[in-house]
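Two proteins were folded this term; both appear here.
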Amino acid sequence: MPGDDQDDIVMTSTDSNIRNTTCPVSGKHVTDLENPVRSIDCKHIYQQKEIMHYLRAKGGRGPCPIAGCPRMLQADKFVPDPLLPLEIQELRDMMQHQTSDTNAIEDFTLLDED
């Protein structure tokens, strides 16, 4: 009968303090950054060496290279956030979990068509 089917609802959290998954300057995925730093102003994450080089080329101050971000960046407003390694590890774990979920293959050929 209609309405008798009950589906399981799985709630997942996508809340993360990581706003960008790749460094816009180096192009590396956040999980691959060697010395990640976070901007105090816009909270985006960068590879430290590359963002400092970018800002030196801009005279010490420049626009955030993330498309649509209106913030101006300054070299002295980047910090090696102590929580950042934990957040990056959580992102790695989440990515690993998603990858393992997509590797499951089910055989639906024997399902009843009713």
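Next, the second protein.
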Amino acid sequence: MRYMMMHKLDESVPGTFEPTPEFMTTMGAYFEEVAKAGILVAAEGLCKSSEESARITATKGKKTITDGPFTETKELIAGFGLVEVRSKEEAVEWAKRFVDVFVQHGIDVEVDVRRVSEGPHEG
């Protein structure tokens, strides 16, 4: 089963989207461990919404395109990790360790752990 760990940060907090070298070292070590465990599918961080971003919203068939920054968004997806694990519980255990990377560096974070849909055969 694949699970996505999406981390959300408050873009209005200074420095949130400019990680320190120390933070990057800790995060790199975490994902190296995930890779060595053989469960890493992909992982990426995202740039601030002010950097070449757009949001497309469809309401009643009408599309609206809004260029960043998205100042009204307090919980902006800042990156993700995609892992292949045996259960939700295993995904949550890895996600808790992912959160620890932020906690060690004094960064408030919210991480959603979501199972990836494997196709129309799932309920």
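The longest helix spans residues 88-104. Strands lie at 2-9, 40-45, 54-59, 62-67, 76-84, 110-115. These notes refer to the second protein only.
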